[in-house]
Please model this.
Amino acid sequence: MVEVFITNVQSEEKANSIIHELEVLFPDYMVNFDLEDHDKILRIESENINTEHVIEMLNKKNINCEILK
Model:
């Protein structure tokens, strides 16, 4: 399963921090960002993805996050 999220993450440093945190919380997630895309894409691949938790976690960090439709 793959989920793609639109975010407002601007910096590589912030993206790496989020990737690290997600991989600690969810060791089975494969996580990456495409900051060159105008939607600042967050891509997560895993058997089961808790999209609500991902969105909530990023929102608590004042990062806009929504599923790409």
